[in-house]
């Protein structure tokens, strides 16, 4: 690291310590809402600034841990971590501080897709490569980031909907009898955009009745609140499409507090025994996985949070002059409580279904 690099590290430590103190941190273990937390920097290390969008879900916590686990001092890195607390303004100010600190790379997990052109142009002008982690952005100039590594959210939705189609066919249920509500993730996030669009297109193709889409923000509390409202409004709901596991756990609470059962038996002739199906995405929360084993969640399409190794591989190769592909998508499974659907096909590619049993 040259002299200016050492100077910028020292300035970043100064910035971080000021912020650390301002956030009331530095007293005991780091608080969950630290704006900055940093491992002791080493002047010869590669400095990574990571703007994480928040800590709203089990996926998010696992995703943050995955990045923190790979960019460690013993491996030659210094990680500056910022929890944006679901606010784009926090993420933009963090990116600007990373630029002032002259970091070597910026990682961004953007809370929503739009509004990044200006700050990413500032990073480009500072000659700092930006890697999009998990979600992606919608920008005028695709040259504003090096690459995106994460999930194909539209494909995730296609897998979920093909599973639902195959499952309802297997129990002899007519498409017109499928009445769905969509508990959406954070509005404008690429995960929400892809998962909502996938359901819309499948419903149009198969003739399902999507009664309403309501934002549930990827959280359990909001999932519970929204499901309560929707159940009081529509008594014929038989499928709840949750755009992540935390919402699904909340929806199950609401279903059960209404005296109904969450499960796959949605076509039982005895209305008193008929279940309401809950579908979801992620497969990170152990509680959600357990709900599949209990047949309270019928299908989870995995959303793989373990992106740290992929990002480090991108950086290590880029340091050697190798440019990454534009988009790097991670492999993801499909979990189900039912063995009725063995696999699903999307665009002539087959994806196996993993049955989870108690
Ligand atoms: C998807 C990720 C989503 C998860 C949610 O990659 O952005 O955000 O599905 C999380 O759990 O809140």
Question: What do the pLDDT scores average to?
Answer: 91
Strand tally, please?
A: 15
Radius of gyration: 22 Å
Bin the strand percentage. Answer: 15-25%
- Any ligands, ions or cofactors bound here, and which? beta-D-galactofuranose
**CATH fold group of the largest domain:** Rossmann fold
- CATH superfamily descriptor of the largest domain: Response regulator
Structural domain count: 2
Low-pLDDT residue spans? 14-33
Distance between the termini: 54 Å
Question: How would you describe this structure to a colleague?
Answer:
- The chain has 358 residues and is an alpha/beta fold.
- The chain folds into two domains: 3-145, Rossmann fold; 153-304 and 334-355, Rossmann fold.
- Helix content is 38%, strand content 20%.
- The protein contains ten helices and 15 strands.
- It has helices spanning 3-22, 58-70, 88-100, 117-125, 153-170, 190-206, 220-233, 245-257, 286-293, 308-319; strands spanning 37-38, 46-52, 77-83, 105-108, 130-134, 147-150, 179-184, 209-215, 239-242, 277-282, 299-302, 327-329, 334-336, 343-346, 349-355.
- The strands form two sheets. Strands 8-7-9-10-11-13-15-14 form an eight-stranded mixed sheet, sandwiched between helices. A seven-stranded mixed sheet has the order 1-3-2-4-5-6-12, with helices on both faces.
- Helix 5 (153-170) runs parallel beside helix 6 and helix 7 crosses helix 8 (245-257).
- The protein is elongated.
- The N and C termini lie far apart (54 Å).
- Bound molecules: beta-D-galactofuranose.
- Residues 56-57, 59-60, 134-135, 150-151, 191, 218, 244, 281-282, 303 line the site of beta-D-galactofuranose.
